[in-house]
Amino acid sequence: xxxxxxxxxxxxxxxxxxxxxxxxxxxxxxxxxxxxxxxxxxxxxxxxxxxxxxxxxxxxxxxxxxxxxxxxxxxxxxxxxxxxxxxxxxxxxxxxxxxxxxxxxxxxxxxxxxxxxxxxxxxxxxxxxxxxxxxxxxxxxxxxxxxxxxxxxxxxxxxxxxxxxxxxxxxxxxxxxxxxxxxxxxxxxxxxxxxxxxxxxxxxxxxxxxxxxxxxxxxxxxxxxxxxxxx
Length: 231
Description:
The chain has 231 residues and is α/β, with parallel strands linked by helices. The chain has ten helices and six strands. It has two domains: 1-114, 2-Layer Sandwich (Potassium Channel Kv1.1, Chain A), CATH 3.30.710; 115-231, no CATH class. The strands form two sheets. Strands 1-3-2-4 form a four-stranded mixed beta sheet. A two-stranded antiparallel ribbon has the order 5-6.
């Protein structure tokens, strides 16, 4: 972490393992976001924190996202307390590492944005951008995002699923269709009491993912062959 990034983080006391770290995205911010699940904070979690608290500017979030605007300034539980107590919003289901990047962009802390992302890190970020309707903030990095999912070494099921999702959200039609076709062509039907499918990818099956999307994949097999599309 760079020195500028380190300055945003408060040190967590050793005897308070369940106390999330504090990141000052805006030292004058009026809102605290608790991202992740602080109840599972543990020294054994590893380098990736389970949860953290971010001091942010509610107006900065409102300006960049209609979802944040409705959530923070509408008639919901996340709105500012009327009793003068500190404004705290808990987001236990959001991925911490992705939220760090999202909030850094919103608050103009570009020096805190990490270097090249893996396809999985980018997918986590895309999930949040979709959830909060904030794709416009990533436009300056669109070419780099495309580069991440254009690499040829992402052939395992999880990476392919992430690549398909990212390409769909960014409207990258050729990458989306090519990756989906590759996934379909790597599926083998397995005979048994109940028909199931698994990808032929070096013995690394992902039955749940492909079974879940089987109707869509079958439709795409028909569509691709019917129109004889050349990718």
